[in-house]
């Protein structure tokens, strides 16, 4: 396990402060009072430790103050008093539509409504099968509605509130009158280009899998296939991960070296590529964490310093919670960060245990990482969804080796599409077979009886995973203690 450094303590205290704002919101002066209270516990220690404790306490107070201010801003709404009102308005769509059973839902920013000038995030409720593209400026006629409360195990009102959305606009008619510009407009164009250029000519299920892995977009998957990914424990493959970012950065550096560019220019190009990829896929928790981690590799190389994985993980948490402290409750945030922490803490010991078995090195590594992630994420899956996949380790060992090939072919197709569409099409065709293999693994494992448990069985699995996690951490702590 890595040694705890002062930077870890200070960054960790700020993260705790941001998360604590979800429990108790404190104004600036009150939040800063946490510093002397927390620092009072350091009176009996050395001066250097006392100084670190005080700095950490200040970071805790500042984090709580900032988190409280951000939550107050996210909770403000000018439209909650307009529920039931129907008016003309102008909105800018900020995401792609999510098709449901009867309607499609789409996030947007409302610029005006019934003569009022606004800048508020809303959710549009649209007829199924017809929705404006991401980044469209839309003139619409809509009725303001309150989000639905708890229903069938899902509380839409709370979920939307945590994203700064307080009302739903039921759209009667709409018309695209333009497209947003600036950085957001560039991001929209990047996303459309990456979707088209990464899989030219590849449609249907195979194209949907490539799109899901590359962009984190599950909308193209059928309900049956998405359920197979969920039951098999492979749903995380459809969220942009560190693997995507690392492979992209490595490919850009390799291309720079192949063209004779100095190493520094290769890492600068990697930073640009990571930023462009982040803009294209959107600020999902796993994307931000992966982007910060990938960028840290290049920044550390450019500065001639060693990268510290724990510090990078804490910085990613600071970025996400600093923007929206409600993200702490998000299942994607919890699963993404707890999985990485499990790899840091349990990955190496589990790999050492497996060294005595006659398995290839890549398989030992895949099994160790899958076991670590499964143990750590099972309690969260139980608490968040009431469902636990039992064969996730097997599914990941079978599917993970194909992921680098899928990503490499997708990025490769996007890179060569502007100069050689025929070669891009050939790469996309080959990638279709890789996508078909991953989908086949998901379906095969999901078809096994008992592949996923719910209800009381899921509770038992979650509690068992918590017990295993506690035992593993206890043994590691005893081993690390001199």
Mean pLDDT: 83
Number of domains: 3
The biggest beta sheet is recorded as:
5 strands, mixed, barrel
> Any idea what the shape is?
globular
End-to-end gap: 13 Å
Proportion of strand residues: 5-15%
- The strand line-up of the biggest sheet is 1-3-4-8-5
Q: What percent of the residues sit in helical stretches (DSSP H or I)?
A: 55-70%
Q: How large is the radius of gyration?
A: 24 Å
Number of strands: 10
Q: Which parts are unreliable, with pLDDT below 50 for 5 consecutive residues or more?
A: none
In N-to-C order, the SSE pattern is HHHHEEEEEEEHEHHHHHHHHHEHHHEH
Helix run count:
18
Structural class: alpha+beta
Features:
five-stranded mixed β-barrel; 13% strand; globular; 482 residues; 18 helices; OB fold (Dihydrolipoamide Acetyltransferase, E2P)
Notes on the protein architecture:
A five-stranded mixed β-barrel has the order 1-3-4-8-5. A two-stranded antiparallel ribbon has the order 6-7. Strands 9-10 form a two-stranded antiparallel ribbon. The model has no long low-confidence stretch (mean pLDDT 83). It contains 18 helices and ten strands. Helix 6 packs across helix 10, helix 9 (242-258) runs antiparallel to helix 10 and helix 15 (392-399) runs antiparallel to helix 17. The chain is globular and about 70 Å long. A hairpin with a 2-residue loop joins strand 3 and strand 4. It is α+β, with helices and mostly antiparallel strands. It has helices spanning 6-20, 28-32, 34-39, 47-75, 156-161, 182-197, 204-215, 223-232, 242-258, 263-281, 285-303, 309-323, 331-354, 361-385, 392-399, 403-416, 421-446, 455-480; strands at 86-93, 98-99, 103-113, 116-127, 136-145, 150-151, 154-155, 168-179, 387-389, 452-454. The protein folds into three domains: 6-75, no CATH class; 80-180, OB fold (Dihydrolipoamide Acetyltransferase, E2P) (Beta Barrel); 191-480, no CATH class. 61% of the residues lie in helices and 13% in strands.
């Amino acid at each position: 396990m890595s040694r705890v450094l002062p930077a870890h303590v200070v960054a960790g205290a700020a993260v705790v402060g941001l998360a604590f704002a979800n429990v108790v919101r404190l104004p600036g002066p009150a939040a800063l009072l946490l510093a002397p209270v927390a620092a009072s516990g350091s009176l009996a220690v050395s001066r250097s430790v006392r100084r670190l404790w005080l700095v950490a306490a200040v970071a805790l107070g500042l984090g709580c103050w900032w988190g409280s201010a951000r939550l107050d801003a996210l909770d403000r709404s000018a439209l909650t008093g307009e529920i039931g009102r129907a008016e003309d308005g102008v909105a800018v769509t900020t995401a792609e539509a999510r098709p449901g059973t009867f309607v499609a839902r789409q996030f947007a920013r409302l610029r005006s409504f019934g003569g009022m000038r606004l800048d508020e995030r809303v959710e549009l409720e649209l007829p199924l099968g017809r929705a404006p593209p991401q980044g469209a400026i839309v003139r619409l006629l809509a009725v303001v509605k309150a989000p639905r409360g708890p229903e069938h195990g899902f509380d839409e009102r709370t979920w939307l509130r945590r994203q700064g959305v307080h009302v739903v606009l039921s759209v009667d008619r709409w018309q695209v009158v333009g497209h947003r510009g600036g950085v957001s407009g560039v991001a929209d164009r990047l996303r459309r280009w990456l979707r088209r250029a990464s899989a030219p000519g590849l449609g249907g299920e195979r194209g949907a899998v490539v799109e899901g892995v590359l962009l984190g977009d599950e909308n193209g998957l059928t309900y049956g296939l998405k359920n197979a990914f969920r039951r098999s424990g492979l749903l995380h493959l459809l969220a942009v991960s560190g693997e995507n970012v690392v492979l992209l950065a490595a490919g850009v550096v390799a291309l720079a070296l192949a063209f004779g560019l100095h190493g520094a220019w290769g890492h600068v190009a990697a930073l640009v590529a990571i930023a462009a990829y982040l803009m294209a896929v959107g600020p999902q928790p796993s994307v931000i964490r992966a982007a910060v981690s990938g960028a840290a590799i290049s920044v550390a190389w450019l500065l001639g310093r060693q990268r510290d994985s724990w510090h990078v993980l804490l910085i990613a948490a600071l970025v996400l919670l600093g923007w929206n402290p409600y993200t702490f409750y998000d299942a994607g945030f919890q699963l993404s960060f707890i999985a990485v922490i499990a790899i840091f803490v349990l990955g190496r010991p589990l790999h050492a245990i497996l060294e005595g078995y006659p398995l290839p090195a890549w398989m030992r590594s895949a099994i160790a990482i899958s076991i670590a992630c499964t143990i750590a994420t099972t309690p969260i899956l139980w608490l968040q969804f009431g469902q636990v996949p039992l064969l996730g380790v097997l599914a990941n060992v079978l599917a993970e080796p194909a992921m680098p090939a899928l990503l490499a072919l997708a990025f490769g197709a996007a890179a060569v599409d502007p100069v050689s569409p025929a070669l891009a099409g050939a790469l996309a065709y080959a990638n279709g077979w890789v996508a078909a293999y991953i989908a086949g693994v998901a379906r095969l494992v999901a078809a096994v009886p008992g592949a996923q448990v719910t209800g009381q069985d899921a509770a038992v699995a979650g509690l068992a995973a918590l017990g295993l996690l506690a035992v593993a951490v206890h043994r590691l702590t005893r081993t690390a203690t001199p």
